Amino acid sequence: MTEPRPPLRLVGSPHRDEDDDDDFEPVERAPHDLHPPYRELTVVENVEAAEEDPPRTPLSPRFVIVALIAFQLLAASSFLGKYRALAQGGGEFAFAAAVSALASLCLYAGAVLLAGWPGRGRALFIAAAAGFGVSMPAWGIGYGWDWPLAFGAILALAGAWFARPEVRPDDESAAQP
């Protein structure tokens, strides 16, 4: 069977020898109040950053989209031989290859515009999404070489969202100071 458990000894119990530990101080609170006391929250206002700390800017979502498009370019380039072989097969693969190549160029040009100038390249992203959407069924959905094109279509839609022009209130609006 199992061995019997040794008896438990509580820290700070009354059965403790006083000469065991001279640094021990019992807690002065009710036995049912086991949590530490709460601290009052204070509001700190007018805190200025130290002069040696450079200002931190958050990572813009447009740069995340551009980085993901660069990843899509690497993924699509790994299947370049397969795309070339399918395009030389003729028929609908030649059409899909032409549309995919134009969609890819639109996607990469839109990424360059989005990285350099916020709010630019939306039409290129929309054209890329439409091109990838038209060419996807011709490539054959479900194959391994198809996922970079599907990922490109998703990124084109995200790029179109982040490349929209910034909405500014009218000069005559009551929201202006």
What class, by secondary structure content?
Answer: mainly alpha
Low-confidence stretches: none
Mean pLDDT: 76
> What is the overall number of helices?
5
Helix content: 40-55%
Q: N-to-C terminal Cα separation, in Å?
A: 81 Å
**Oligomeric state of the chains in view:** single chain
Question: Judging from the principal axes of the Cα atoms, what is the shape?
Answer: elongated
Strand content: under 5%
- Element string (H = helix, E = strand): HHHHH
| Number of extended strands | 0
Cα Rg: 32 Å
Tell me the major beta sheet: none
List the defining traits of the structure above.
single chain; mainly alpha; 5 helices; 0% strand; elongated
Walk me through this protein's architecture.
- By secondary structure, this protein is mainly alpha-helical.
- The protein has a domain at 61-162.
- The chain is 48% helix and 0% strand.
- The chain is built from five helices and no strands.
- Helix 1 packs antiparallel against helix 3 and helix 3 (92-116) runs parallel beside helix 5 (147-162).
- The longest helix has 25 residues, at 92-116.
- The protein is elongated, with a radius of gyration of 32 Å.
